[in-house]
Amino acid sequence: MGQSHEPEIPFRPDVFLARLGELEVVLGPHARPHVERIRAALIAAMAARDRGDEAGAVREIGAAMECLASLAETLDLGEAAAMRQLAATVGRALLRGDSAEARRAAEVIFARSGARWVERK
């Protein structure tokens, strides 16, 4: 994460949050309630991270992923099931401190969604 006070969470909620509006544009107005819940969870994750509550940040990232899976359910039930399984893998890996496994699962989620990792400069 770059700064020593930030936990090693291999997911950048701020980067995802910055591009979240694109989901609504691409998927249409029916996605708005899901996007708003995802946005709220990501903001809560960043707040938890900033106050040093790594477990709280992980919970909120999990909540955001669950909302994303709910949105996927409106599009493709099979994809939603896969997203839920991957989200659970990320959460378990983060909770046991396995950032490599969490990143691998997150990369699969991002690849399936068409998103790309943006490296911090």
Structural notes for this entry:
The protein is mainly α. It has six helices and no strands. Helix 5 packs antiparallel against helix 6.
Give the topology.
Blueprint: H1 13-18, H2 21-27, H3 32-50, H4 54-73, H5 77-95, H6 99-113
Radius of gyration: 14 Å
If helices are DSSP runs of H or I spanning 4 or more residues, what is the number of helices? 6
The stretches of 5 or more residues where confidence is low (pLDDT under 50) are: 1-9
The quaternary organization reads as: single chain
Structural class, judged by helices and strands? mainly alpha
Strand composition percent: under 5%
User: How many strands appear in the DSSP assignment?
Assistant: 0
Distance between the termini: 11 Å
Shape by Cα distribution: globular
Q: Report the mean per-residue pLDDT as an integer.
A: 77
Order of helices and strands: HHHHHH
Bin the helical content: over 70%
Describe the biggest sheet? none
